[in-house]
Amino acid sequence: MPGTLVAMPGVLPEGEPVPRDGSLPATARRTVGARGFGVYVHVPFCASRCGYCDFNTYTAAELGGGASRETYADSVLAELALAARVLGDSPPQRVDTVFVGGGTPTLLPADDLARILDGIDRVWGLAADAEVTTEANPESVTPESLKTLRAAGYTRISLGMQSAAPGVLAVLDRRHSAGRATAAALEARDAGFEHVNLDLIYGTPGETAEDFAASLAQVVDAGVDHVSAYALIVEDGTRLAARMRRGELPYPSDDVAADRYLAAEAALGAAGFSWYEVSNWARSAAARCRHNLLYWTGADWWGLGPGAHSHVGGVRWWNVKHPSAYAARLAEGVSPALAREVLSPDEQHMEDVMLRVRLASGLPLDVLDEPGRAGAERARDAGLLDAGAYARGLVVLTLRGRLLADAVVRDLLP
Hints:
This protein has helices spanning 26-29, 60-63, 69-87, 110-124, 143-152, 166-171, 180-190, 209-221, 239-245, 254-270, 290-296, 323-331, 345-356, 370-381, 387-391, 399-403, 405-412; strands at residues 37-43, 95-102, 126-136, 156-162, 195-202, 226-231, 274-277, 280-282, 300-304, 309-312, 315-319, 337-342, 363-364, 394-395. The protein is α/β, with parallel strands linked by helices. It has 2 domains: 26-296, Aldolase class I (TIM Barrel, Alpha-Beta Barrel); 345-414, no CATH class. The strands form 3 sheets. The chain has a 9-stranded mixed β-sheet, sandwiched between helices. Strands 10-11-12 form a 3-stranded antiparallel β-sheet, with no helix packed on it. Strand 3 (126-136), helix 5 and strand 4 form a beta-alpha-beta unit. Helix 3 runs parallel beside helix 4 (110-124) and helix 3 (69-87) crosses helix 12. The radius of gyration is 21 Å and the shape is globular. The model is unreliable at 3-9 (pLDDT under 50).
């Protein structure tokens, strides 16, 4: 399928132990930020849990003792101080992007989000043109909070719309009304945000073609400059999965999801959007999410917060999941990292191919080995790769290729 809703995994992967001080191998610190440097901040709080969600998030009832929203910014700043010590003599020249995700980051006071951003700037320095994004649920922002965030230096906001159809929102257990997301988008533009994204989920049981068309029309009418659209996947352990096992709801259909993707491409293309990653469209190059592009092109980033993942110089690590355990480790002055892995050259190559094939900018053919190039030739002959781009030495998916992106990747990594 062209895109799926990706959650922070319910179970963290296994890996090797991380030193108590979080130190990295010298080889990983040699080229910090050479391909760009970003900071991800995970805010693990939600007012309620959506039925499809498998993210590392907690409602007040689930949180337990030892962690709170009130002290959360202090814990993040403590990890930031640890990160500064770890990268000490080899810090990034600048922070190109900051992305605050969740959960619902805007459940924190806007002043706390401003304090976290100021801390990042003080430690490493924000680039003059840094992209600074926060995610938000539509009901968690107001014109006043949006103005505070914009004044603090946030340049971009990503709003979880999911659908304009009340019935679809009900199946997903979303709390906002059908029109609130687009209203929040307009409020963000009025507050001075340069870039506004709306997230859509398609293929929800009960969603009709007309429902999705209405969602796309609302997105276009809202005047946003970026849209993300993901096919619903059903994660084990979620309320939605339980309802499907009981037969209350049908499982998503791959054929329906493909139809929805084609509808998104047609509607967004007609409105002046262009795809730049399989599940993401922007009105201009300036509107593309630069933080996600860092991920997709193998740059470095430090992930702050419980369950957050980081990548520096081919070393990837992930923090303990629960906010209480995260806060306790930092209070003791030790790294909150649970485990890490050092990516081999083969693993780095595999990830590079998997991610860059999904980009409209394409993957250079010369990074593929001989079997991979043979697979690319087969994909071109099958109409899955753009023939013109192929002649220029690039692997670029056609529209049909985007629908079968995973199959193309398998052909390139035999």
